[in-house]
Amino acid sequence: MGGSSASPCDLDREFAPQIAQLIATPPLQAAQEYYDELIQSKKHDGIRVNFSSKHGKGVCANKDFAEGDLILKDQILVGSQHSLNKIDCAVCSYCFRFIGSIEFQIGRRLYWQSIGLSSDCTDRGHCHESDVGSSASSSGATKENSNTLPEEVLVSLITGDKSLPFTDHFSLPQVVPCCGCEEERYCSQSCADSDWETYHSLLCTGSKTESSRKSALQKFVEHANGSNDIFLVAAKVITFTLLRYKKLKIQSEFQKNTDESNFSLLMEAWKPISMGFKKRWWDSVALPEDVDSCDEDSFRQQIRDLAFTSLQLLKDAIFDPECAPLFSLEVYGHIIGMFELNNLGLVVASPIQDYFIHIDDLPDDKKEEAKKVTRPFLDALGEDYAVPCEGTAFFPLQSCMNHSCCPNAKAFKRDEDIDGHAVILALKPIRKDDEITISYIDEDVPYEERQAQLADYGFICACPRCQEEKPY
Ligand SMILES: C[S@@+](CC[C@H](N)C(=O)[O-])C[C@H]1O[C@@H](n2cnc3c(N)ncnc32)[C@H](O)[C@@H]1O
């Protein structure tokens, strides 16, 4: 679609040349320098980022890897837990580690479940820890009680008054609340400070925030929660850039305050994001199966309108005239497109699973005793008793890895990987200079299905396996 109807956003016209620079693929040399520096600063000496005319960026091995070797632990640049997943998992909003205690995790999940809020419920406007114990406040309840545990038992798990056996083997970091709002919680003061400095000071809806911004932010969040929570992570990209811009501005105080010098600071602040592979969201998203191809234009127009509504709400809250091009629909669409196209799932396994496995593995006498206490909780949690933390994140190096249906590496969390870092392990021996590939999809399905899934990423796979299995 793109060009078939004019953008509803005035900024798209007013700042067209600046926007073109923001969304352009960075020059090869600048990109190479950026990745070389990043790899050096993070000491990922086993890899390098290469550029080819065929698939753009790709990651190559800088040394031999044996099967099972760790290739890379890639730190999130910008990420966010899915809104609905917040009901199931309490994690640090900065590093995505599980926090509190096993009792806290189990208690809050069963509590929300008991009052009808669960991750398959669509109204999640009221899930604050401060509501615990006052179920009348949860007007969003939509589900029958699915466990029979008394509310006071659940509340005492959350408050720490009740403990479960053997949880001391699974201690989690204490909850450090955001100094402003009830939404964000951390595993340490240092994560709280980093989040504040990097994104959250502009997105906090708490007491430190001026009331007009607060209500605008609340409207933005409500719209994202009711439509697509990818807007929340897109907003974080914008605040990440704005806050970097402000820091650079302070550092370069001696420079002239012209539009030109401000824009070059904005380009510098945007640099880590500029490296991500991007396309306009509404142009690149695959047409859902239930949308007829003759309705494609109107489908794409609807997505663009949805993004525009979200952007307007975000602008009401945090618009900064010095960084106006960043608030254009064109840039917003490319940021969202970056998350859609980069295979950027964030997953952290729940410690609840390890806890119940531990109970099951106890010697018989201890096991019986412990199970008498834990069984009702396990039964109430049901089949999905250990939902992992899930979200969307931009990993600067993992996002340079190309896809193969016969990959030589895999994103895989080991027992010790308890935060949001992406962990890439070798699936087979990899020789120095080989390209490192991962699979963006479930590769254990037939050729046609794989190609259909890869349509979401905007390419047709021609890896050795696909060439072999391609029907003539
Ligand atoms: C996560 S990025 C990978 C890095 C990308 N090559 C770049 O230049 O930034 C995903 C995009 O890379 C391209 N890509 C990845 N694997 C590919 C493959 N096997 N064949 C063709 N294009 C591929 C597609 O355009 C895809 O949407």
TrEMBL record:
Q: Which domain of life is it from?
A: Eukaryota
Q: Name one GO cellular component term.
A: nucleus
Q: List residues of the SET domain.
A: 45-441
* Keyword Metal-binding tagged: yes
GO MF, one annotated term:
zinc ion binding
Write out the entry's keywords from A to Z: Metal-binding, Zinc, Zinc-finger
Q: Which GO terms describe its biological process?
A: callus formation; epigenetic regulation of gene expression; lateral root formation; root regeneration
Q: Give the matching InterPro entries.
A: ATXR2-like, SET_dom, SET_dom_sf, Znf_MYND
Could you identify this protein by its name? Answer: SET domain-containing protein
**Native source organism of the sequence:** Oryza brachyantha (malo sina)
